[in-house]
Amino acid sequence: MQQRVLHTAKSACPHDCPSACMLEVNVLQDGRIGRIAGARHNTYTLGVVCAKVARYHERIDHPERLLYPLRRRGPKGSGQFERIAWPAALAEIADRFSAIARRSGPAAIWPYHSGGNMGVLQRYGLDRLRNPMRYSRQHTTICVTPAESGWLAGVGKLVGPDPREMQEADLIVIWGGNPVSTQVNVMTHVARARKARGTKLIVVDVYRTPTVEQADIALIIKPGSDAALALAVMNVLITERLLDRDYLGRYTDFDAEVERHILTRTPQWAADITGLSAAEIIAFARLYGQTRKSFIRVGFGFTRTRNGASAMHAVSCLPALTGAWSERGGGAFFLSFDKKQWGLDTSLINASDAIDPSVRILDQSRIGAVLCGEGAALDGGPAVEAMLMQNANSATVAPSTAKVLKGLARDDLFLVVQEQFLTATARHADIVLPATMFVEHDDIYYGLGHTHLTFGPKLVEPRGEARPNSHTVRELSRLLGVKHASLALSDRELLDHALLGGGMASFAEAAKVGWIDRALSFKAAHFLDGFPQPDARFHFKPDWRRVGPGHGVMPRIADWSSRYERADARHPYKLVCPPARNFLNSTFSQTPTSVAKEAGPCVRLHPRAARRAGVSEGSQVRIGNDRGSVVLGARLDAGQQEATLIVEGIWPAEAFRERRAINTLIGDDPVPPNGGAGFHDTAVWLEPVACP
Ligand code: SF4
Prior knowledge:
Helices cover about 30% and strands about 15% of the residues. The protein contains 23 helices and 25 strands.
């Protein structure tokens, strides 16, 4: 029976997606939620959300949702559990954590979070347990660290022109992103610009995405070659005098040495590396150089390679050459992730006063190496004997899956997972705790792809015995005897403290509106008073030492680095694993409509490559390298370079014929200079597989 809509409430998407949409949620008479739409009156979201979130009721009321705490009663990974009560679960966790800390020291316990929920409280609040207890810390690297490193190298801070200004651009370049599938609102702004001003859209990517299909000009390059393209564009800007020397002199460290270096990076040089023709590169450079109001919307995809940080840096140099940074509708935007811009006082939420800098920091992306006890990954400390994981499905999402699974299956690892579904990771847990979904708790989210703090208040009662992550942190801290001011405060009070401490409205007030716009002034966003670097200049010659410990291998002047996983005779293909439109990492891989629309894991390969390998449309192929191999269906597509293979989406292992998921093939060596995983930087072989 159709339920009556009780009211429509403001909310915010909690997922790991830079769109960070502001939402309108229909709350139904029976306490469930109905349709979810984008907030119409927000000038960034503009009423648009992706289909997977619009049908969120499928996820909240999914029959397989975790509703009660569970204790393992079969072998790890078997999925055999018994129901227990919350107090018993928490008491057991506290007892085991205390015993391990007494025996091996607190650093043997590693609280771990990832981006399953991006809430200021429900994600980062795990530090409220970690810091006072001196448990191992986390270097959060799995998502944007290489991109962040490259941006910081040139620009200096994770800020930039307001992405709403795309509507005022005459040329938009979407570089290494697929917003049609993953950041829908970007395309709304692009569409408005095209309609109002005839704005041209250029898309740079490694395969024909739905965004590429909308482009006026598409540049499909080889994976790992983005910096070469950027350098060659710079070369043309110089040789054809399309650069703004006044701007360069006033705002950047550009000098004769930089110029000489760029003059060696010709379109012919880049043609070989990128797989484009020199003519295509020159045409792009001319259009870019002749359009003062050019806006580059920089994605993350192209930076998830071992040379990704230098690629991001090279791309960010382009508007410095033309002076486009100083124009409304000009410059480049990557991410808003500057604490000062957001202005929240998160000291209580994170118990940041309790941080002990001597406690080791473990790399989130290297969870497999950490759990398998690889020396360097342990940073000289003890083996990890216990974990509390929230918002994380590392068994599917982290690189080097085989290592992760081996580590999670250790009998001497006490694993607690708070989750919404019995994921591959949760199946390895000793205790599973059911987690609330975003409309069942209060939180604040950073609008990473725009400038708004967004608010998601509790709208409905939690299903079953699901509890917020913050409940676990608070109750466990009490049982463990943590003394911290934050423990006396409710979730609402913690969020109020963060907002009021930053001079903003209370949570209740802000949630009524749905967002607070924290946009910088035009001058600050466009760096008109200088870039946020010590010398106030954009850096073509970055000081990589300030960015990360792996600075020694970074190019001294903006450049393409050949230090990435190169194809060779044994591994002639480059594998890229971008997001699927209907999933978000491994989230939504349980929702029936998403699964039906994605229709199973498959590898896209160029018809010429398929012919050479003896593979036909729909047949099974094995792709592999020294890390392992996976079997999946083949789909022929000429929309990529011949040696590029594309596997979209992070499907669970059971979706693959041999029950090994795609990240089995991905390496976990840290991307220099500051870590991250080379998710799109994998050399592989491919062979046909006979039908079973
Ligand atoms: S586009 Fe991204 S932020 Fe917006 S609703 Fe979908 S997942 Fe959430």
